[in-house]
Specification:
Its cofactor is Mg(2+). The chain has nine helices and 20 strands. It is of the alpha+beta class and about 350 residues long.
Length: about 350
């Protein structure tokens, strides 16, 4: 017997086991803050569990339905999915709560687990701080109380790793005197979108070693979508594996006032979301083929590090303007320019168009 997330082909059989309407189960399976898990034996769905969204007041997710055979495996997988959603434990329909399984021993595993937790808590904090005062940073970008509040939450969560942390809001003094791995956080990417109530806006965190992002996590706090990935280990969106793919859609940052955003040769569609972290994740999961800021002044390390970790796990390509790999430095003021694409050919064609 195997236990896994339900796919579209499982829903009809899972509906029969669960006794829910097909429409209700399809809605559950499509929600990023819910996970439908199935037990499969002999190619048939024999058991179903539905993991509800975590609650911020008690650190719990809840299994809102548990039916059929293979319940031990369903409970174990439900607890793993709850950890992926940022919960510390999961409550069963009957009986006591179950702790989520511990993270692996290595730094990447622990980082990804804590990043999911930090994203969940930051989302709640940002929602609670909505409507606060708005100010301008020296570079002209918008700052709100929600940024600082979410930053404090993330800093507290990642303190468990004892790794230097850089964020848009502050830098750890240890970064100036160490070549050790470091974490970079953007507690709220897409502040302008958040203020306008126009999705997406995101929490992102990346783990950097040797100038390369080795793991990353991004949570679209408007929708609940979550992307995670680690170099050499794979990448996931809402628990499912993702890969980049060639296509005809390009995503780009918002151009300066009065400037154009041309559609690159080889593309048919241009998209501007106003949230760089989500843009890069769209390349990682194959929704878009390429992203670039080659015709702009550049972007900041905290805006892109988390998503670059997802892209690295997915197998995407990231090249600087010189056609080489893109090293990252712990400097939130520096601007970096690059192209992120599904494959090397796409990336280099775009570089050739922006000499």
């Amino acid at each position: 017997m195997s236990v896994r997330l339900a796919g579209p082909d499982d829903l009809a059989a899972a509906q029969e086991v669960l006794g829910a309407s097909g429409t209700a189960l399809a809605r559950m399976a499509s929600r990023p803050d819910l996970r439908v898990v199935v037990a499969v034996e002999g190619g048939e769905v024999v058991g179903v569990a539905v993991v509800g969204p975590p609650r911020l007041d008690d650190d719990e997710a809840e299994v809102v339905a548990l039916r059929g055979r293979g319940q031990d495996g369903l409970v174990a997988e439900a607890a793993r999915q709850a950890a992926d959603l940022g919960a510390l434990r999961v409550r069963m329909p009957v009986g006591p709560w179950v702790p989520v399984p511990p993270a692996g021993d290595d730094l990447v595993d622990r980082f990804l687990r804590l990043a999911a937790r930090a994203g969940l808590l930051a989302s709640g904090t940002i929602g609670a701080a909505a409507g606060g005062p708005v100010s301008r940073k020296p570079d002209g970008s918008v700052s709100i109380d929600a940024d600082a509040a979410a930053d404090r939450v993330a800093t507290e969560v990642f303190a468990e790793l004892d790794v230097a942390l850089l964020s848009e809001e502050h830098a750890d003094p240890a970064l100036a005197r160490s070549d050790a791995p470091w974490i970079v956080v953007d507690p709220l990417d897409g502040t302008g979108n958040f203020l306008a109530g126009l999705p997406p806006w995101a929490f992102s965190a990346g783990l950097v070693a040797g100038g390369r992002v080795v793991a990353g996590f991004v949570m679209d706090m408007a929708s609940g979508r979550r992307w995670s990935g680690a170099a050499g280990r794979g990448a996931w969106r809402d628990g499912r594996p993702i890969r980049p793919r060639p296509g005809s859609t390009t995503v780009v940052p918002t151009p300066p006032p009065g400037a154009a955003a041309p559609v690159p040769e080889g593309s048919r569609r241009l998209r501007i979301t106003g949230c760089t972290a989500v843009d890069l994740c769209l390349v990682a999961d194959g929704s878009a083929a390429v992203w670039h800021d080659l015709d702009r002044a550049g972007t900041h390390v905290h805006d892109v590090a988390g998503a670059l970790g997802v892209l690295a796990g997915a197998g995407g390509v990231v090249l600087g303007p010189d056609g080489e790999d893109l090293p990252l430095r712990p400097d939130t003021g520096a601007l970096i320019r690059f192209v992120a694409a599904a494959d090397d050919d796409t990336a280099r064609r775009l570089l050739a168009a922006h000499p």
